[in-house]
Design brief:
Blueprint lengths: L4 E5 L1 E2 L2 E2 L1 H17 L3 E7 L6 H4 L6 E6 L8 H15 L3 E5 L2 H14 L3 E5 L1 E4 L5 E7 L4 E6 L5 E5 L16 E5 L30 E5 L9 H11 L2 E4 L1 H5 L20 E5 L5 H7 L4 E6 L6 H4 L2 E4 L2 H13 L2
Parallel strand pairs: 1-4, 1-6, 4-5, 5-12, 6-11, 7-11, 13-14, 13-15, 15-16, 16-17
Antiparallel strand pairs: 2-3, 8-9, 9-10
The structure holds flavin-adenine dinucleotide.
């Protein structure tokens, strides 16, 4: 009996993350191929209004758990509620975004359910028996592993920007079910008292379509303004190498790489970055890579789709002026 492909929809202050809509879009394709229903699961407070936002992306059914204690994400409460729902409904697969929340939640859930999981996946395959397997980069992106689970549900986190957004269909209808779940005091050992949101007009690094990153070649913090000017014209996020972060030129939250964020934008522009394996591990799956470096032997050029050999202080302002004309 079909039990469903579940997408755990991530929301914060009733705003759905783009990666969840990407997963629903891909989930629809998987559901059509496997004959499984596509189920969106939304936890939070006052989440009923979000059902209408996920149905157009392909959900056959929406499960809502609306509870004051789920207003803000906490590991204990969210793990407990999802564990109860999954045990009750027994879905075939549960997919989450590889975000801070997804990375926190999925392994704990896997442990509670006694199943394995695949993390930071960049591909999903479906075999003839409708079994899902997952592709994930290993060895800093040098190779790919195929992860196959023999137990159900299969659990996986998927890298943001891996799958394109579907064209939403506003006429789509779906069943909406409100479930209740027990939340014990034991599940609420951590309580969120306040969330301080950093204000920025730029997109968040892991979900950005375009990223322009600066490395040690930027020479100092005062020069990041040329990257920012370019980012603002492109509607891009700004990133950095660890060398720039370690030098104190830019905050750690902007670091891309093995010990920073993993990104997969449509366009990644690397400026004054040599292309160390640890940096490539975080951005190697970008769709198009442009590198600007004055060293023609820089390793980043081995991965780049477009290589610009030259001084970034001349090239970035020129590019910014050209982008303004688009
Ligand atoms: P460099 O390697 O010094 O390169 C600077 C580049 O700028 C050079 O190629 C140079 O030719 C070019 N340049 C200089 N001036 C100009 C100019 N005017 N115009 C154009 N080009 C110019 N690194 C990360 O980035 N992310 C990580 O998450 C990360 N994690 C790590 C984890 C571990 C365990 C370890 C050991 C290292 C990690 N590193 C990480 C560090 C990594 O090994 C490199 O040291 C780092 O990526 C180098 O940063 P960079 O390319 O900015 O600097």
């Amino acid at each position: 009996m079909a039990k469903g492909i579940w997408i755990v929809v991530e929301q914060s202050k009733l705003e759905i993350r783009k990666v969840s809509l990407e997963l629903l879009s891909q989930g629809r394709i998987i559901a059509d191929k496997t004959g499984e229903p596509l189920v969106a699961v939304i936890l939070g407070k006052g989440v009923a209004e979000l059902a209408g936002e996920v149905i157009p992306y392909g959900a056959d059914k929406v499960i809502l758990v609306d509870n004051e204690k789920l207003a803000d994400y906490t590991t204990g409460a969210y793990t407990s509620v999802l564990n109860q729902l999954i045990r009750k409904e027994e879905p075939q697969a549960v997919l989450l975004g590889n975000t801070a929340v997804g990375k926190d939640l999925a392994p704990r859930l896997a442990q509670r359910l006694g199943v394995g999981m695949a993390s930071d996946c960049t591909g999903i395959e479906i075999d003839d028996a409708s079994f899902l397997s997952f592709k994930r980069p290993i060895y800093g992106g040098k190779a790919f592993a195929e992860v196959v689970s023999e137990v159900r549900p299969v659990l996986a986190t998927i890298r943001p920007n891996t799958f394109p957004l579907a064209q939403p269909d506003a006429s789509r209808q779906a069943e909406v079910v409100t479930e209740t779940a027990a939340i014990d005091p034991e599940d609420l050992r951590a309580i969120v008292k306040e969330i301080a949101i950093a204000t920025s007009q730029r997109p968040e690094l892991i979900e950005a379509n375009i990223i322009i990153s600066g490395g040690r070649g930027m020479k100092g913090p005062e020069n990041y303004c040329i990257l920012e000017a370019c980012a603002d014209v492109l509607g891009a996020a700004v990133g950095a190498s660890r060398a720039a972060v370690d030098a104190g030129w830019i905050e750690q939250k902007f670091q891309v790489g093995q010990t920073g964020k993993t990104v997969s934008p449509t366009l990644y522009i690397a400026c004054g970055i040599s292309g160390a394996i640890q940096h490539l591990a975080g951005m190697g799956s970008s769709k198009v890579i442009v590198a600007i470096n004055k060293d023609p032997e820089a390793n980043i050029f081995n991965l780049a789709d477009y290589s610009i050999v030259g001084d970034l202080f001349e090239i970035i302002p020129l590019l910014t002026e050209e982008f303004k004309k688009l």
